[in-house]
Design a protein that fits this description.
flat; two-stranded antiparallel sheet; 229 residues
Length: 229
């Protein structure tokens, strides 16, 4: 994408569902017409014919499903292995935590190696105990943090998600109850809380909401029974 004249151009990604028509285009001219229609603010000279031809010739990439390794550190005779970054946890860039979580992995690895530089086995155990729960929590957070930001999925599900997101946000700001009800997980991550703590609070909040809904349903059912019987 073009920026100021003194700054070189930067790349951009086309993110669209597999069913989107952009993936059905098979020649450079069709793709040029698509970009002119979708991004009229871009000059026609933004993309060369070679770039467009390369785009349509290559199969599109696919975001990985949120996943994580169960074992992130292991000792072997004479050596040890640590998994960091995408090797330990992979997921779409929905909440922008790929680089952040990888840097946390590096920071923790450096800490445990300095702390146990004469006992690598203890460093392995400590790294596993710290980062495995974080990787598992992050893989779960990504699934529900902000899953419809690319306009994918059924409109009804997206609408229900945004309604739930707004309700969690508003209720988490109320006095007295904010201690018990966590904000949406995407905001918890942005506040800098640990992934494990964000997920633990989110699960507790979900449980409280379910209990409140169940209590409300029972109260409503009891009132209906009293009216009719």
């Amino acid at each position: 994408l073009p920026v100021r004249a003194e700054v070189r151009e930067r790349t951009a990604n086309v993110i669209a569902p597999a069913s989107h028509r952009v993936w059905t285009l098979r020649d450079a001219q069709s793709l040029r017409s698509f970009f002119a229609e979708s991004f009229p603010q871009l000059a026609p000279s933004t993309f060369s014919d070679d770039e467009l031809a390369s785009f349509v010739a290559r199969p599109p990439g696919v975001f990985p499903k949120p996943q994580h390794a169960l074992v992130l550190a292991k000792s072997f005779p004479g050596s040890s292995c640590f998994l960091l970054g995408d090797a330990a946890h992979a997921f779409p860039p929905d909440v922008g935590q790929g680089v952040n979580s990888a840097l946390e992995d590096v920071l923790v690895l450096g800490d445990v190696l300095r702390k146990h530089h004469k006992d690598t086995a203890r460093a392995v155990d400590e790294f596993q105990a710290d980062r495995a729960p974080a990787a598992a929590a992050l893989a779960r957070i990504v699934r529900c943090a902000f899953p419809y930001q690319y306009n994918q999925g059924p409109k009804l599900r997206a609408g229900l998600f945004f309604l739930g997101f707004l309700l969690r946000l508003l209720l988490s700001r109320l006095p007295l109850v904010s201690f018990f009800l966590a904000e949406p997980v995407a905001l918890g991550v942005l506040k800098g809380s640990s992934y494990a703590d964000v997920w633990r609070r989110a699960q507790r909040t979900t449980l409280l909401y379910r209990l409140l809904l169940a209590a409300g349903a029972l109260a409503l059912a009891a009132k209906v029974l009293l009216v009719f019987y």
